[in-house]
Design a protein that fits this description.
By secondary structure, this protein is mainly alpha-helical. The protein has 3 domains: 101 residues, Fumarase/aspartase (N-terminal domain) (Fumarase C, Chain B, domain 1); 218 residues, Up-down Bundle (Fumarase C, Chain A, domain 2), CATH 1.20.200.10; 65 residues, Ribonucleotide Reductase Protein R1, domain 1 (Orthogonal Bundle), CATH 1.10.40. It has 19 helices and 6 strands. The strands form 3 sheets. Strands 1-2 form a two-stranded antiparallel ribbon. Strands 3-4 form a two-stranded parallel ribbon. It is elongated and about 100 Å long. The chain starts with 15 loop residues before the first helix and ends in a 5-residue tail after the last helix.
Length: 459
């Protein structure tokens, strides 16, 4: 497919191939296909329940109507564009399209049931719920879970690889690379569960959410039950109390959760970038790739830098949607009409970031020697272990040392010491022999506590 050179968004230009699967759902065409689906299903429902003198459609006619959705393509896109040029109303254009299809199928007798008792938002809110639900389930979530799966693999592979931790950017009590990656897996999994549990609400109750037109047409029908049954039949959760629009709270909840996931992924990207800059991870050269236009030796961590930027853009869009969609003046205003058309932009930048992170994680390799060298250059971090053991010995009555913390602070703070310095210091300590022998055997690489074992909590 050749793209027009004038595309405004890089998601539709440079990055189109990476995010195009979202277009199946979150594009204007995807939205219109969903609108046709809702209109068609409402026709099938009304006729299937023999409402207003209609008789149930044959199985062939039902299949033919549903085929309008399945086969929705360029011809329908073009026809809708022509219709909307006249109607100046996108949902009305969809209604006319469906009516035209009914004529082609020989179903003019049910034409007046098209869009029956519906306001545009009855169609729109259900359509958005369907396309967002399916985009998340079929495109975004699989990409998100691919990243989690790769991180889980790295966490398990490197669970025993001791490394110097850095709190406030300074050498600190060691951990393992696997455990640090496992932290991200745990965080991302929690958010995944929250996103997967998100409700997708829908309303189907007319111009101001009162079923007024419905009751005028048939006062005897249980319209609330009909609405709930129809909405639930689409796989959505029925919202009984709305204005003309569904209140969009489910959207705000979802976009906040995805934005939260973005920010955790941003934290991951900056940490991996930092580990690369420290030499903990080597970047695997990609055949033919150029790192720098002038410095041939360089392999730039562009995957993680690209991810950072796109996660920031995604959250900016999704945060804006979450903040604004929950407000609509009185019974309805149109501010949501244009903002919801940017849902795909928010998810597109997040999907692009996920792709970069996944690729980036597959292009790095742990340098165990670099981790070991860093640990061996920072024996002063064992000051924590020594002062804690002394305190335990004092408490047990095996030492009379006063203020163990101050003692180790004097030895280590702002200083670089080596193994010999530490051995000489421990040998002179007034503590029990068992504790002394334990400390004399301690090394920075061996002072990672339960880090490796903690990775088991991912299973």
């Amino acid at each position: 497919m050749t793209l027009p050179v004038q595309v405004l968004s890089p998601l539709d230009g440079r990055y189109h191939a990476t995010v195009s699967d979202l277009g199946e759902y979150l594009s204007e065409a995807g939205l219109n296909r969903a609108r046709v689906q809702v209109e068609v299903e409402w026709l099938i429902y009304l006729t299937g329940h023999s409402m207003f003198g209609a008789t149930p459609l044959s199985a062939d006619h039902v299949a033919s109507l549903r085929a309008l959705v399945i086969n929705f393509g360029q011809a329908e896109i073009d026809e809708l564009a022509g219709l909307e040029a006249t109607t100046r109303h996108d949902v009305k254009a969809v209604e006319y399209l469906v009516r035209h299809k009914l004529t082609e199928l020989g179903l003019d007798n049910i034409a007046e049931l098209t869009h029956f008792a519906c306001t545009s938002e009855d169609i729109n809110n259900l359509s958005y719920a369907l396309i967002v639900r399916d985009a998340v389930a079929n495109v975004w979530m699989p990409a998100y879970r691919d990243v989690i799966a790769k991180l889980r693999e790295l966490a398990l592979t490197h669970r025993g690889e001791a490394m110097l931790a850095r709190t406030h950017g300074q050498p600190a009590t060691p951990t393992t690379m696997g455990k640090e990656i496992a932290v991200f897996v745990f965080r991302l999994e929690r958010i995944a569960a929250q996103i997967e549990a998100n409700e997708y609400l829908g309303k189907f109750s007319g111009a101001t959410g009162t079923f007024a037109a419905h009751l005028a047409a048939d006062p005897s029908a249980d319209w609330a039950n009909i609405s709930e049954e129809f909405v639930s039949g689409l796989g959505l959760t029925w919202n009984p109390l709305t204005t003309q629009i569904e209140s969009h709270d489910w959207q705000a909840e979802l976009y906040n959760k995805v934005s939260h996931a973005n920010r955790v992924l941003h934290n991951l990207a900056t940490d991996i970038w930092t580990y690369i800059s420290m030499g903990y991870f080597r970047q695997i050269p990609q055949v033919g790739a150029t790192g720098s236009s002038t410095m041939p030796h360089k392999i730039n961590p562009i995957r993680f830098e690209n991810a950072e930027a796109n996660l920031e853009l995604s959250s900016a869009v999704l945060d804006s949607l979450a903040a604004t969609l929950v407000t609509s003046r009185l019974q309805r205003d149109l501010t949501d009409s244009t903002t919801q058309r940017n849902i795909g932009v928010g998810f597109g930048h997040s999907l692009l970031a996920l792709d970069n992170i996944r690729r980036g994680l597959n292009e790095i390799d742990l340098d165990s020697l670099a981790l070991a060298a860093d640990l061996d250059a920072n024996w002063e971090i064992l000051g924590e272990a020594i002062q804690t053991v002394i305190r335990a010995e004092v408490s047990a009555g095996r030492s009379t040392i006063s203020d163990p913390y101050a003692l180790l602070k004097e030895l280590t703070r702002g200083k670089r010491i080596n193994r010999d310095d530490l051995v000489a210091f421990v040998a002179k300590l007034e503590i029990g022999d068992e504790a002394k022998q334990r400390l004399l055997k301690l090394t920075p690489a061996g002072y990672a506590g339960m880090a490796s074992e903690l990775v088991r909590y991912l299973n």
